[in-house]
Amino acid sequence: MSASFYLVLEQPVAGFESSDAPGTALARVVEAHPTLAALTDFVSVDPTQIALAVGMVYPYEEDGAEDLQDIDFGPPEWYEPALGLVVVRRALDAVRAEPGSIAAAIYDPGLRPEDVIADLEAIERVLLLAQQHETRFHFMQG
Predict the structure, then answer these.
(1) 12-20 long-range CB contacts below 8 Å, 24 or more apart?
(2) Which of 63, 77, 93, 119 could disulfide-link to 26, CB 3.0 to 4.6 Å?
(3) pTM of the complete model
(4) Per-residue confidence of the chain (142 residues) as pLDDT tens digits?
(5) 52 class by beta-carbon count within 10 Å (0-12 exposed, 13-18 middle, 19+ buried)
(6) Can you give the three-state secondary structure of 90-126, one letter per residue?
């Protein structure tokens, strides 16, 4: 299973499926690249991932989800699409201007700048759609 950095909308929007912007290339470099790292400010952390990280549940525990039912992790954070668009467009400009910055940020021979650009362009399209439908977003990492 490959890593992903994907967009979630607060409200359903006709014409949007989470597979429209899977972010698999972006996930490989987002935290290591100086400009792309700003996208992580819009990540809403999955409570299950927190529970796994701190040892509240174990990866192979069958009833792990049941153990978390009574814990209030609070609501997910949501962000306005206009804010996300600013950061995504800044990231697009940076990678287009200097495609070699991807390789400089992380050694991954299979990671191509054009794949990262394609992920960012897909996210930009979805954020424009979210803005038109007045719904907020956040990113998830998986």
Answers:
(1) 13/129, 13/130, 13/133, 13/135, 15/129, 16/126, 16/129, 16/130, 20/122, 20/125, 20/126
(2) 119
(3) 0.82
(4) 357 888 999 998 887 877 667 789 999 999 999 999 999 999 987 666 666 666 666 556 566 566 666 666 677 899 999 999 999 999 999 999 999 999 999 999 999 999 999 999 999 999 999 999 999 999 988 7
(5) middle
(6) HHHHHHHHCCHHHHHHCCCCCCCHHHHHHHHHHHHHH
